[in-house]
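Student: Please help interpret what follows.
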Amino acid sequence: MTKYAIADVKARWILDSRANPTVETELRTEGGTVAVAAVPSGASKGEFEALELRDGESAFHGLGVKKAVDNVNSIIGPKVKGMDVREQKQIDDTMIALDGTPNKSKLGANAVLSVSLAVARAAALAQGMQLHEWISKLYHRKPLLPVPFSNVLNGGEHAGNDLSIQEFMVVPVGLKTFHEALQAVSEIYVSLRSYVTKRYGAVAKNVGDEGGVAPPMGNTQEALSALESAITDAGYSNGKEIRLAIDAASSTFFINGKYKIDGRLLTKEELMDYWKQVIAAHKIMSIEDPFEQNDFETTAKFTAQVKPLQVVGDDIFVTQIARLKRGIDVGACNALLLKVNQVGSLTEAVDAGLLAIKSGYSVMVSHRSGETTDDFIADLAVGLGTGQIKTGAPARGERVAKYNRLLKIEDDTGIPYAGPSIASKS
């Protein structure tokens, strides 16, 4: 045995940011290193995501994770005991084979991922490295501080208002450091809260799942105008220091072959024209899931027509290589949203990210709407050098944890901020 060998693996349930249980795993090596990792959960889930194993019993309204926890403690743990934490792929492949299903439905993607992330964190700690350093070395990537795509105004599945679009984001591409970028996001967020409170009353102070304000709005134009006012009130300029981005999550308002948005039912052709108008009117730099998750053809047509706009694939790809390859083949999207829990292991998620990069696609590392204070994805975005991260508004502890981790990384390392390079492309 070496100091890098896994000595013990123990899982437990903890609560996520929506008061639902999730899996947290603690891993100890023979050398005494202890690493902990927790798994997030999504509300707006792609149809083809790996299975998040839930108990379906009375506890937690059916959302308990006792089975997943037991699978870590009684099946996965004994199998990986003695394995070297530096062998990330070998361990992940072992768990994938142990599950033996296409979507991890036997053991649960939440069970497998909790161990996978704990392994990476343990490997870094055991070698005296920061997690982002280990990820950079493991995957041969140049580190980079990412631009935050900050969801400061929530709609869709993330809020209780009538906005069809799920996320309205501010993107501080025109600033020189991550510290300056996060300051801008924070100032705009505070200005936005003030704006919506004055316009809609105290109810507008309520926040959605990702910490953004969730005022009683029902119109896209209304939401984007509020963002533009907040940007100006905070002393910035839309199209200069700040750009706007949206996550449409169009599958959530795709009904009987049409898209219900702003009180209208649109065909896919009409929705395409609608997006073009919104993009031009508000200087949008990035749009996620503009069409429902199985419409590769329309997404490809749209992507070709709106260059150089960034078109991000989330539900359409769900961080799965097979679906990403299909998208690359037909030209659907030009960016991948990388969510580790959509596929269920670090190795598989990174493989998808590296394929995207090799194919000329951008990559945005992303949180989920049901999060924990685990800041793993901050180091993942830096270590892979993706240049982009989506982790919610600068509010609520589970979102702020990621932002504060990125501040520390910039302070400690001097790794450059990706904003200027992304601004030059948009």
